[in-house]
Design a protein that fits this description.
Keywords: DNA-binding, Nucleus, Transcription, Transcription regulation. One of its GO terms (molecular function) is DNA-binding transcription factor activity. InterPro entries: WRKY_dom, WRKY_dom_sf, WRKY_plant. Residues 227-261 are annotated as: Disordered. The structure is a single chain. By secondary structure, this protein is of the alpha+beta class. It has one domain (10-85, 122-337). The chain is 37% helix and 12% strand. It contains 13 helices and seven strands. The chain has helices spanning 11-36, 40-43, 47-75, 88-97, 101-110, 161-164, 207-211, 235-239, 242-248, 254-259, 275-280, 314-320, 331-337, and strands at 124-129, 138-144, 153-158, 169-174, 182-187, 293-296, 300-303. A seven-stranded antiparallel β-sheet has the order 2-3-4-5-1-6-7. Helix 1 (11-36) runs antiparallel to helix 3. It is elongated, with a radius of gyration of 21 Å. The two termini are 30 Å apart. It binds a DNA duplex through helix 5, strand 2 and strand 3.
Length: 338
Amino acid sequence: MGTCCWPEKLSSSKERVIKELVIQGHEFASHLQFLLQKPSGDFDGCLALVDELVGKILRSFDETLSVITSSESAGGEVCQNLASSQGDSACYDDRRSEDSGESKKRLAIKNKRGCYKRKKISQSWTTVCPTIEDGHGWRKYGQKEILNAKYPRSYFRCTRKHDQGCKATKQVQRMEENPDMYHTTYIGHHTCRDILKAPQMITDSDPWESYNYNNIVTSHSKIPKYEKEEEEHHPFIGSSSKEPKIKQEESKEDAPSDLTGDVSSLDSIVWKDLIPFEESVDEPTMILRPDCGVVVDSVHAYSCTEVTSQSLDMDFFVRSIDFDCDFHFDESELCRLQ
DNA sequence: AACATTTGACCATT
DNA sequence: AATGGTCAAATGTT
C-alpha cells in the first residue's frame, strides 16, 4: 500500500500531475488568494474572476486525477487507495460466476434480497466530526450492531445513486470514547454533479463558505420527529439523509432557518468541507475540517485548525496531499518544471 | 403519492 | 461460524 511508487513509464504522468496540480493549481490559488485579500469593497467587483479561478482550480484537480486514474490502468500498477471502486461490479460478477453451484442456485431462485455486489474497500477515508453533515445528500440504507462497539454503525449511500449512478457511500458510527463525535468512513467518491450549483453560491464574503455549498455552517442536523428516543443514541445518524436533501434541492434560503433550531451547541463548531476536492477530484485523499480530526485512509492523519480564506496556501495542500504511494512533490522537481 | 428510514434477511469475507 | 455490508419490504413522514 504505502510503497506503491510511480513506475518509470509513469514519470510523464507524474510531471503532468505536478504541472496541473502544483504549478497551475498553485498559480490559480495564489491569484485567488490575492483577490481575497483585497478590501471587501474591491472584492465585490472580482466575483466573476473569483468564480473563474475556482473553476480553474477545480479543473486542475479534475485533470490531475484523471491523469492519475488513467496512469493506473496504463501502468497496471494500482495505488490501492486510488484504485477505483467504480469498476468493481464486473469483478464481482466474474467472481460470482465462479462461485459454487450452490450459490448460483440460490441466486437463480431468489434473485432479490441479498443479491448484491459488495464493493471492495479501495477508496476510503475517514473523518471524526461532531456532526455527520457534510453537504452531500445521503440516504440511509442500513444499520448494524458492531461487535464490541457501543453504538451501531449506520450505512449511507448517495441520494444520487440511482439517477446519476453515484457510488459514494459512507459509514457513520458514534465514537465510544467521545459520543459527541462521529467517526465517518467515506467509501468511494461522488460522481454526481450537484456541484454545478456551486458557482451560484459564491456570493459570500467568506469564499470558503462558498465551498460549503449547502450552508453547513448554519444548517446543523435536525432530529426528525420520528426519531423519538433513538435520538439519544444517534441523533444525526437518523436524520442525515433528509437534511442534505433539503439543502441539495431548492432551499438555499429556508434551509438555514429551518435547521438551526435545536442544535445551538454546534453553532460554535464551524467547520467547512472543501467539497470541491471531494467532488471534482476523483479521489479526495484529504478533507480539511477545522475542529475535526481528519484521518485519511485510516493511516494518514491531518489536523488543521486554521485554514481560512486568509491562509489559503497551496503549499499546505501540496504538503498534505498523500496519494499513499510515495508520490512526493519535492521542491527540486517543482523548480525543474517551473 | 413520493420519498426516507427501519429492520430482518441474505450474502461476502475472513 | 462469526462478522459486517447490502438489499428490500414494511413502515413512517411530508
